[in-house]
Amino acid sequence: MSAIVSKIENGVIVDKKTSDDAILLGAMDDAVAIGIDGSTTCTGISLITLHGKILQTVAYKRDKGDDSVMYKLKLKSFILKLLNNNSCIHHIFYEEPFLGYASSTVLIELHTLVKEIIYENAPKFDYIKFLEISNQKWKKLFLAPDKIPVGTEAQKAAARRKLEEIYPYFSNMTQDEVDATCMALICAKKIAEGEGDTLESAKKIKPFKFKAQFIAANTDREMLNILSKQIKSYRIPKSLAKDEYPIIELNGRGEFKSKVCEAIGNGDRVIIVKYKSDKYGNATLTYNLGRMALSSKYLYAIVWRQTRKN
Fold first, then answer.
1. Which sequence spans correspond to the domains of the chain?
2. What is the pLDDT of residues 190-204, one digit of tens each?
3. Helix/strand/coil for 203
């Protein structure tokens, strides 16, 4: 069995069991939201009402011997059963993945999971609203008025500390369940307050110059394999170099340079911009990508600001 399910009532864990059976929430007076924190070894799932009542959490662990495809299929089956048995689930929040070129095969497989379920079963789940939110975004909102600490581990500790101050029983939960719950709580709060659009809308970004390196590939995995061999030649500033970078897919509309500036945002970071190779003809001409565009389904731009922000 892969799923460790915790049922919560009145601020207390009333039942905790290992089971892949579908969760049945029963009749609900309030719409339910799911927060999902996809991870390489344990995916956290949190079920809450839109008014912030925590119902259940799941630590869906990767079985020993399972490769990334099998892990995804099992998790996908679990979430599909969850949706089939609980029509009260109207929102799904998924943490925007950071796809590292070194060891992110599992994250590549997982990050399309929810969309696949919705598309493959259309129009059955068309009523479900799906949102991907960056971990920096939800952490900033959840930890406010405190500032986000520097470093992933410090951020995780801060989120856990704040959640445990409200719900002490989370001291016995995995970090994945903690992150999924924090994300779900703040997203549900914003939606209940009528501010759901602020979760994904970005402030107007003033255009800036950026560096770009391009890769042509048919899949994310293929791109990351190429990236791992070429990354050193890109001369990414040391202050920005990491083992993993967020991948952001563009819809093919608008002007390429503006979309890249919006995707990078006001911060100073490296991102991977993905788009279909038959889109953004202006970029194809500007960067002389004609041959690359004809060779593969997607083009990937590894981009960062030309000058550092103070």
1. 3-199, 210-305
2. 988 888 777 864 556
3. coil
pTM flag (> 0.85): no
Render the burial of 259-297: b for 16+ CB within 10 Å, e for the rest: bbbbbbbeeebbbbbbbebebbeebbeebebeebbeebe
Q: Report the CATH number of the 3-199 domain.
A: 3.30.420.10
Cα 105-3-45 angle, rounded to 5 deg: 70
Q: Kindly give the pairing relationship between strand 129-133 and strand 89-95.
A: parallel
Cα separation of 3 and 58, whole Å? 6
Can you tell me which residue has the tokens 């007076």?
A: 29
Q: What is the 3-state secondary structure (H, E, C) of 35-71?
A: EEECCCCEEEEEEEECCCCEEEEEEEECCCCCCHHHH
Q: What are the start-end ranges of the E strands in the chain?
A: 3-9, 12-18, 32-37, 42-49, 54-61, 89-95, 98-100, 129-133, 210-217, 244-249, 271-276, 298-305
